[in-house]
Amino acid sequence: MRYISTRGKAPALSFEDTMLTGLARDGGLYVPEEIPTLTPAQIAAMAGQSYEETAFSVMRPFIGDTFTDEEFRELIANAYGGFGHAARAPLVQLAPNHFLLELFHGPTLAFKDFAMQLIGQMFQKALGRKDARVTIVGATSGDTGSAAIEAFRGLDNVDVFILYPHGRVSDVQRRQMTTPAESNVHALAIDGDFDDCQARLKDMFNDFEFRDTVKLAGVNSINWGRVLAQVVYYFSSAVSLGAPEREISFTVPTGNFGDIFAGYIAKRMGLPIKDLVVATNQNDILDRCLKGQGYHKGMVEPSISPSMDIQVSSNFERALFDAYGRDGNAVAQLMDELGQGGFDISQGAMQVLQDIYSSGRATEEETNATIAQALKTSGELLCPHSAVGVKVAQEKREEATPMITLATAHPAKFPDAVEAASGIRPPLPPRMADLFDREERVTRVANDLDALKTHIKGALGL
Length: 462
Ligand SMILES: *Cc1c(COP(=O)(O)O)cnc(C)c1O
What we know:
EC number: 4.2.3.1
Number of helices: 19
Helix content: 40-55%
Radius of gyration: 21 Å
CATH architecture of the domain at 88-109 and 224-422: 3-Layer(aba) Sandwich
Protein name: Threonine synthase
Family: Belongs to the threonine synthase family.
Mean pLDDT: 95
Bound molecules: pyridoxal-5'-phosphate
Number of strands: 15
Keywords: Amino-acid biosynthesis, Lyase, Pyridoxal phosphate, Threonine biosynthesis
Organism: Sulfitobacter pacificus
Structural class: alpha/beta
CATH class of the domain at 88-109 and 224-422: Alpha Beta
Low-confidence stretches: none
């Protein structure tokens, strides 16, 4: 199994190198050269299996000889052992033929734990046998940073530095980043906004001397290993509702397009997915694009579902690559145009995209109303991101096909918004109820490349 870049000019890599590299050297994203398929009998055999067993069957064809079967099973067991639910990704019913896939039982209460916990284990294994060490630096608006810290804390071969905008993440998000006591974890509060954090991160990757000195590595959402880990729960949930004999539809609260793209991979692997619905908040560039209006950047309008507040949806490049017949030059050209503000999509590519994905959006009022309505009609308390999904799913749902909406975060991660919409302040799960008693450890750093480089080198003793 080899991986190629969406821009066609970087070398093909093994799974291991793809995972450790992150972004391709031509600026593109790595995708599998060919997508392996599972037979209906292989999919049917997942019925009744543990999440871990299904994870092994789904991901094994993608990892080549990077890990032995025994190693890979152990990594998966370590990754999901700390989840707060025995099913890992349980399904609950919201309404007739409408189900909610709860992806928030991991250590930081958002679906990002599914990918990040496994990436942590895979990095540790791959680096450990080479006796290599890397420095992971990430920028976050909240969920990714806490998931990364939780995944890498205490691992021997990794230091992790997370940049977050000072004063602009929720108390729960901040405490999840600042309270781990392990010395390889470094939370950095930057005097700036999320865009500043991302810009400084990019500066660090472009400073080749620094990059080589600290052995910089990235785990943002374009890392193929993260997409792969997310393919699993499409299988586990669809099979529990009758796949492969029965078609299932999914609605996915979407920002960077990583989660929904994992659904597309599941479909290509042979899972009978009927509709794959992209749900956006008022930052609806993807909804507009999939309705044929081109891909044109606007300004981010902050919403109550902040993890979906995006202008540029990075993993969409992977969808475009397939829609353009895997023509790397065409994708590189589109990404150049994006630098000037946006691009239009050819008729042929649009047809391909619309055959795979449909879309909808939810306003802030609709999101609030959906939180209140779901509580009333099903007793489920939704986080604002999941509510965007539920609202769009209600519009797209058909009688004949079960609809699964992905619940991407626990309501307790966004208590203010949930309380405003429902009147109920969701408590943290008991296993993390002491979050507000734990001691915080954070360094405030200026929004300045040199200050950051000095701090990171100092912390590493370089
Ligand atoms: C990251 C995130 C999303 C968006 O997922 P993408 O893979 O970026 O599309 C949605 N909801 C929550 C809670 C998230 O943390």
